[in-house]
Amino acid sequence: MISSAEQAILDAVNLDTPWELIERFTTLKREDPEDVKQAAALIAERLAQHGVPVDIHHPELFLSIPRSASVTIGDTTLFAKAMAMSAVFPEGLSAPLVYQPSGYALDADDLFSRQAAVDEMDVRGKIVVSEGFGMPGKVSDLERRGALAVIAINPGKRAHWGVCTTIWGSPDLYDLPRKPGVAVVNVNAEDGQRLIEWARAGGEVTLKTDLNEGWFESPVPVVTIPGTEDTEKFVLLHGHYDSWDYGIGDNAVGDATLLEIARVLWANRDNLRRSVKIAWWPGHSTGRYAGSTWYSDAFGLELDEHCIAQVNCDSPGCRWATEYQDVSLMPETERFAAELIRDVTGKELRAERPHQAGDYSFNNIGLSGYFMLLSTMPDELRAEKDYYAVGGCGGNIAWHTEDDLLEIADRDILLKDIRIYLLAAMRTANSTVIPFDFTLTLDDFRVTVERYQAAAGDHFSFEPLRAEIARLRSAVVQLGAQADSLKDQPLNSASVRAINEAQMCLARQLVRVNFTREAAFFHDPAESIPPLPDLAVAEDLPHASPERIGFYRTHLMRGQNRVMAALREAHTAVERALALPVPG
């Protein structure tokens, strides 16, 4: 339930400042580095107009900006869109065309996964045409099989822009070998059908791609609104300000949301107990989250020690987006996030596990996170309009196309979504105890392990892990009871500090084992990651040949050790907090 103090701050929200920025962004394409610099300057200028101080960092990010692309069959040249980070062939690449059926993305899970081929034909030395999107997993799979290039047939009248690398952010020396060595373009459905027919006739195509690739200075504006009790600890609210073309629904509306929240929170900073940082990222579209990744690298230790949560703001306030379904959030945040949406809108949230997408560049640090996309159009309306799945714009298929213009934004929905994000930042910053329930995470672990155990059968036992999950859950229940008795205590009291340190340790340990395979401070590939990923191979055991069973057992033993060590580390922190006396 919204308190009177919260309501007074929510009532301060208006659309004058955010809508003016959206209208200004309708005149500024934000994919070229120079346009991105102009956009950052506009954000900084509007913050200054409202007296909000901003730090602007100037990192160099590795970006790939598509310039042009085409596919020629016979005497006909078809329009195409080069995927960022794909190989460059400005003079043209000619080879036989083969059709590899794969099907369209039916939902977001398909969109962000491999979209595996129906069968694996021989594609060596050929250009492959295939339905769907030129998504990273699909591209890396075809490259592994020897394809020279990939033509992805998008489902609608427009081809979509996108990025095809599995590398998350600017590459390091571990990542660099995964940079695509194939040309990748998207075409629309009509031209895709012509290409399928051409492939079936045994035709050859010439594919041309031109991209501007390299290291570019890219401004990162960050506002810090200090808390009154604990200035070191902070909530990170963030979204990207670069775009494909004008990108109003993805993500001018999000940029405007962050701007208005910065204005309102700065004016009401005396009401914040902890700090709030608000960041706008470049390099999201052309660098696979390069801006947020740079920040997680440059400020990794600060984030590890002091950030209590990250909240992503991408594509709020779009037309027809009246529901809050398939909202990305980590399990521990679900109850908290559902209450936010219920309090502002009266609607119920339908949650989903965050995809390895958006600007979730902080998983390897171990930050609890919630929201990515927020409001979306109802399933019935999407079906009525015959829309296919997309990754933003509230479900509008203008996503990543030239059609993502002012008409995609909706004033009333934007106002509502701004209030959700504002309330999220305030409540996360102001709760005496970090307001996440890790019993939900451990319940999620238990269900996942039960599923993996059913698949593993007699080949491997997860019983030690089940016991460790139950032990930690029992301690977390006690921690929650103790936290309830401290709601009126100051943040600097010893008991409150200890419980919050335990909450942060729970996040650091449980997020890492649930969402990452790579080491802390490095970044996992941009491919779907299953729950407790080190144990997920258990589901392959029923299909494993007898001679491979031992390899699976070895892998699962190591994976179980990693998860159990994390649970024990978290348990130690919880026990330490429980040992402190509770103020009378």
UniProtKB/TrEMBL annotation:
Protein's name according to its UniProt entry: Peptidase M28
Superkingdom field: Bacteria
Domain Peptidase M28: 222-407
Taxonomic lineage of the native organism: Bacteria, Thermotogati, Deinococcota, Deinococci, Deinococcales
InterPro entries cross-referenced by the UniProt entry: PA_dom_sf (IPR046450), Peptidase_M28 (IPR007484), Peptidase_M28B (IPR039373)
